[in-house]
Amino acid sequence: MGLQMNLGAYLERRGITAYRLVKATEGRLAPVTVYGLAAKPAQRIDLATVGTVLEALSELTGSPVQVQDVLETLDAEGDQRREDARRRIAAPRSG
Q: What CATH code would you report for 2-90?
């Protein structure tokens, strides 16, 4: 079982746009970082970035946002798809 940060799903559930989060993190995170995290789930992320995102989300929602609020578990099938993708990327290209 694995974990991933699914910021996009959290934002959608709360009715918060990535743009609003960019504005809330202005000067602390690059807009491209916020938009990237909102666009697709992340399996690797800097803890300082997570902290900044959580602080900004807490400011936007008016209540504390915890790390478990933006994390989701991957089932065995999701783990297998991720592993298959890693193998394809690492495989030498023929040609």
A: 1.10.260
